[in-house]
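Q: Hi! First time doing this. I have a protein sequence and I read that you can turn it into a structure. Is that right? Here it is:
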Amino acid sequence: MKNTTPRRRLALLPIAATLLGAIGAMGAGSALAQDLVKIGYTGPLSGGAALYGKNVVNGIEMAIKEINATGLEVAGKKVKLELVSLDDKYSPAEAAINARRLVQQYQTAAVFVPHSGGIYAMQAFNEQEKFIVMAYSSTPKITETGNKLTIRIPPTFNSYIEPFTKYEMKKYGKKVGMLPGDHDYAKNWSALFEPAWVKAGGTVVSNNPMSYNRSADFYSGVSRVLAEKPDVLFVGGPSEPTALVAKQARELGFKGGFLIMDQAKLDEMSKVTGGLAMLEGSIGVMPVSYDERPGPKAFAAAYRKAYGADKDPTTESSYNYAMTHALAAAMKAAGTSTDAAAIRAQMNDALMKLPKDQNAGEFKGVDAVGGTIVDPVVVTVEGGKIKPVSLSELLK
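A: Yes, that's right. Below is the predicted 3D structure, encoded as structure tokens:
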């Protein structure tokens, strides 16, 4: 700066400092560079199923925070995961629109979706658009389609039908009134349950599907079914509306048992009914908060630490938490965060190798058609208390 005046030199100093800072920042940035990888979610975040959807999101987000805190490397590069969650209001059409947006705008290699209608809609194009459907639904049809880029997260519900039927018939009687939701999952459950009940020697006295996602008053529908004097009520959908159906049935004088689809969880239902007394004689799946196995127990403690001591974790949270950890491990093993087929090919090994404290679903792997391998645990409500029971014991 020989030929510059003192005033000119002073004017140049801030510019030089800015350039030096920029160069320094570039150097630091290259040392700390991370690939930002988006994970997609489409599901209900409003309406009657909002809590159900939020439970799924909580599990995914909890896993992502842990993965990012520990550090994830894929093909030698540091990777940071981020969830993009979109509300589809439980609509299959909206789920398909959201999935395309997640893949095209955010380049997601995997999209979590917790309802069968949305899953079917996405399976129509996910193989062509090359993303994995992380399907949280127990509907058997999901993995019967032969879709090579689908992982069905929970076990199929058909394993529950015979033992649930035997328990309720033995305890209460052979007349069932059906009060399921009217969404695709409930329709699929109903289609398998009704003939199974009849085959076991029972009678279906009434079948009245209701919109669990759009209504909070079920008295008229419940009244119509109770007029046929059922011994057992078949109910199911998200926990909160399912609990309202059970509560209103009790308020209308129903004394029998409840056969509950696996989507609804008894611990969440009891918060709506004011305890388990109204749910006496119910049979359903094991709530995570009552599960003493290592994976669920570790998850429950971590969940309460993350979301509050008064927050009970659900299967939606625990299963999707474990599958997010498995998805990250599969990306690492595949050496890619974008090639859906390569990631899918590593999911079985990733799930089998999950540490116990991350395997909140006690998963044992993924089968040949994309369904998880897991031994489900069920419970009954007897004497106002949750009672674990094995499926084999119920079938005796």
